Amino acid sequence: MLGGALLAVPVTAHATAAPAAAPAAATAAKAVGLDDPAKKDIAMQIVSSAENSSLDWKAQYKYIEDIDDGRGYTAGIIGFCSGTGDMLDLVEYYTDVKPGNVLAKYLPALRKVDGSDSHQGLDPNFTKDWAKAAQDAEFKKAQDHERDRVYFNPAVNQGKSDGVGALGQFIYYDAIVMHGDGGDSTSFRNIRKRALSKAKPPAQGGNETTWLNAFLDARVWAMKQEEAHSDTSRVDTAQRVFLKKGNLNLNTPLDWKVYGDSFHIG
Asked: What functional role does this protein have (predicted)?
């Protein structure tokens, strides 16, 4: 978007008329959203660096463990949890697509443990069966589907609505992955609401960097409300690093740290 008025310059018969907006338009054309396939893969790698200490996010379909954060089992490419409902939604969707799959028999137990950290009805074989399911291409597609439906697409859509680029859309995505988008004070929508009391997004006339810093301040506050998320390095030594460099389009190369580990995408 061009700011300021264009000066009227007389054009002589010998002048070559070159559109003044061309460079800006060319730059704008290069700016792509996080839903661009290459940018999306970068987003998956950065989240995986925080969730799994690895850039190889495609190796995480089989991942499952209880990380003692009060959410029961955490599993898969985005940390679906048995205690927060998204794992239940995933297994229900997978069972709709593929009835009789190896995880379908756990649906009654997943409904009972929803909202708690209980393993009742899941142990002792749920983790083995999860790993077995992860060998099925349909289960991988189901994980991709639920990741996009619940987390990725809402974050990107809100980012585009707020007028932020790929970095801002990623910042939203990482927040919604960790905090969900429920009604509690630390949810994504309430992190955004907290930021709105300090700054405005570009779509409301605000400065993009100022807005994203305000959002990250609100995100850090939310993380510190919960002991399991009190280490804020995924913001401090990753997202803020990109923001301080002015990398609003999340262009490579990228270098960052999470929980003390260094990562690089060339």
From this structure: Aids in the defense against invading fungal pathogens by degrading their cell wall chitosan.
Q: Which of 100, 133, 166 is the last residue of a domain?
A: 133
Tens-place pLDDT, residues 226-264: 887 889 999 999 999 999 999 999 999 999 999 999 999
Residue 144 designated active-site: no
For residue 69, indicate whether it is catalytic.
Answer: yes
Output the CA angle 134-140-145, nearest 5 degrees: 145
Catalytic residue among 51, 86, 174, 208: 51
Q: Which residue has the higher pLDDT, 1 or 215?
A: 215
Given the residues 69, 89, 217, 231, select the one marked as catalytic. Answer: 69
Taken in order 237, 229, 158, 192, the sign of the CA dihedral is negative
Domain that holds residue 223: 33-56+153-266
The answer on 165 and 49 residing in a single domain is yes
| Dihedral (CA of 156, 38, 266, 60) sign | positive
pTM: 0.87
Output the CA–CA distances (angstroms, integers) from residue 188 to 151, 194, 226, 262, in the order listed.
Answer: 10, 10, 15, 27
DSSP 79-117: TEETTTSHHHHHHHHHHHHSTT-TTGGGHHHHHHHTTS-
199 and 89 in one domain? no
Q: 257 and 198 in one domain? A: yes
* DSSP H or E segment with residue 132: helix 126-133
CA 54, 226, 167, 73: dihedral to nearest 10 degrees?
Answer: 40
pLDDT level of residue 192 (50, 70, 90 thresholds): very high
176, pLDDT greater than 70: yes
The predicted structure's pLDDT at residue 229: 80
Tally of residues, the chain: 266
